[in-house]
Amino acid sequence: MNLDNLIDQAQKVCEKRGARLTKARSDVLKLLAQHEGAVGAYDLLAQLQKSDANAKPATIYRALDFLSKQGFVHKIESINAFVMCHHISDCNHPVQLLICDDCGHVEEIQSNNLDLAIRAMADASGFDISHQIVEAHGRCQNCH
Q1: Domain termination site, one of 58, 84, 110
Q2: Least packed by Cβ within 10 Å: which of 22, 58, 91, 107?
Q3: pLDDT at residue 36 in the model
Q4: What's the number of domains the chain is made of?
Q5: pLDDT digits (tens, 9 = 90+) for 33-64
């Protein structure tokens, strides 16, 4: 997907939700879209500072928090990094990520069976799931 289309799509989703895609948020989204895999906040900051010398860590973290809440990006807790969501127009889905420990490649998959199983177990425990990210670590096909 080209960056302009990505930003247009994100803008439309934000408008529907009454949220604002500011320039800083848009810039961070564009930077994330240019990465194949996961990227850390400080790597994004270094890239952002090339075009905005005044960018600070808070700039990145606020933008990432917003983008994550909108479902445009996913935070990978186990490696403290972020990755683009490949379903930006339908970003209210359970997230399952396959993370290669060798090369860092991250693949987003979607298993309705896994989601149903987790929700059934949560329901049986009286637990209400508000957000779900499942992370699986291993080696990708290219690293075997």
Answers
A1: 84
A2: 58
A3: 80
A4: 2
A5: 998 889 999 999 999 999 999 999 999 999 99
Domain shared by 78 and 11, yes or no: yes
Owning domain of residue 127: 95-143
Q: Three-state SS across the chain?
A: CCHHHHHHHHHHHHHHHCCCCCHHHHHHHHHHHCCCCCECHHHHHHHHCCCCCCCCHHHHHHHHHHHHHHCCEEEEHHHCEEEECCCCCCCCCCEEEEEECCCCCEEEECCHHHHHHHHHHHHHCCCCCCCCEEEEEECCHHHC
Distance, CA of 56 to CA of 100 (rounded, Å): 30
**103 among the known binding-site residues?**
yes
Q: Annotated binding residue at 100?
A: yes
> Is 90 inside a domain boundary?
no
User: Would the annotation count 143 as a binding residue?
Assistant: yes
Predicted TM-score (pTM) of this structure: 0.86
Q: Do the domain assignments include residue 116?
A: yes
Same domain, yes or no: 60 and 13: yes
| Residue 79 is assigned to a structural domain of this protein | yes
